[in-house]
Amino acid sequence: MKRPVLFLILFGLLIAAALCGGLGGGLVAYYLFQNQRLVSAPSTPFIEPTLQPSPTPVAHLFVQTTQIETTITQVVEKVSPAVVTVVAKMPDQLGFFGVIPGGTSSGSGFIISQEGYVITNNHVVEGAESVHIVLLSGEERPAQVIGRDRFSDLAVLKMDGDVPAVVTLGNSDELRPGETVIAIGSPLGDFKNSVTVGVISATGRAIDTGEGYYLEGLLQTDAAINQGNSGGPLVNLAGEVIGVNTLIVRTSSSGVTVEGLGFAIPSNTVQAVATQIIEKGYVSRPFLGVRWQPINPTLAQQYNLPVEWGIYVSEVIEGSPAETAGIRPGDIITRIGNLAIDANHPFINVLFSFKPGDEVTVELVRRSKTLQVTLTLGESR
To answer: What's the pTM?
Structure first.
């Protein structure tokens, strides 16, 4: 019995030793693991992460409507009811094979008063035998031409019936390059009340009409202007009309294609011209009383003339200020007042810088001699 008892005692001691060794090894391993963590990141002790509330509330975007109004859309909604399409019926022409239908031309315009006066370009209605306008609603109304002025390319119409809306004319002298503008009109006559947006690129521009005078003081814009937009309003972000869309340049004199070169007549010019047309039926212009041909360096060299710039007087109208002052056929007028006639200042523009009734000094060349005469300008219609 002693041997089995001894065997059991020894076996128990071995089991106890194994357990103690495993426990000790685990303690050593834990100790080494902790030391390793401390060595690899001595300056960043382990911190249990906790969720903290944000110091400021998170902003959320709530879209309350799909029709987001902007300044531009508000302006368009305000002005569009007063914008019209102008349709001009041209007279028939007699051709070699019979009558050629005159057809129609179209442009744009806008209503400026409760009396039904409408502004458009002269070139939209020039030569028309009848005119009608088309409202935003599609309703057609007959209109009559009250007066036209080709030198400013403006015309005033008067529509029949009730007026749906009127525009407000702004002060174009206050415009600055970079200001956002909106063009509204009917390109090609079909796309009624189309809207384009751009900026004022420059002010005070001059464009040669090819008819012996410049359109001066124009606003330059990159808002798209196409055929049919002529006569439509150019509007600022205050909803005021600050110009009349008139023309766009697509190629340079050398044939280079350009983009974004649109031009509009400033609203202050529109106000002055429209007021005269409505009150008198015409625009009062200064009258000198001569028929003339322009002189340029090419003609001066070709005909051996004594000056390079001016106008050659071909006829003096009887009873005119020119006749009274002693101007004769064959004279070359080179200056009126302190304004010389040259490449940038055609005769018409120089003359129109004065008013009827102004007393001016006219400088002319007669048989290579320079003379000066004083006269009082008359009034032309």
So the answer is: 0.75
Active site residue 152: no
| Residue 36 CB-density burial (10 A; 0-12 exposed, 13-18 middle, 19+ buried) | exposed
What whole-number distance in Å separates Cα of residue 110 and Cα of residue 379? 29
Spatial distance between the Cα atoms of 282 and 289, rounded to a whole number of angstroms: 18
310-334 mean pLDDT: 96
Dihedral angle over CA of 150, 203, 342, 276, nearest 10: 30
Instruction: Check residue 176 and give its pLDDT.
Output: 94
Sort residue 110 into left (φ over 0), alpha (ψ -120 to 50) or beta.
Answer: beta
Common-topology check for domains 168-280 and 285-380: no
Catalytic residue among 106, 153, 172, 267: 153
Catalytic residue status for 253: no
The hierarchical CATH code for the domain 80-159 is: 2.40.10.10
Structure tokens at 223: 């808002």
* Catalytic (active site) residue 105: no
Domain boundaries, given as residue ranges, for the chain: 80-159, 168-280, 285-380
Cα torsion at 120, 216, 287, 278 (round to 10°)?
Answer: 30
Q: How far apart are CA 89 and CA 160, in angstroms?
A: 17
**Cα 330 to Cα 43: distance, rounded to the nearest angstrom:** 104
pLDDT 10s digits, 359-374: 999 999 999 899 999 9
Catalytic residue among 132, 230, 267, 345, which? Answer: 230
pLDDT mean across residues, the chain: 84
Smallest CA-to-CA distance from 118 within 159, 174, 77, 150 is with 159
Cα separations in angstroms, 189 against 7, 86, 157, 185, 192: 119, 8, 18, 9, 7
Annotated catalytic residue within 108, 123, 186, 194: 123
Q: Which residue has the tokens 């290579």?
A: 368
Superfamily of domain 168-280: Trypsin-like serine proteases (2.40.10.10)
SS3 for 273-294 is: HHHHHHHHCCCCEEECCEEEEE
CATH 2.30.42.10 fits 285-380, yes or no: yes
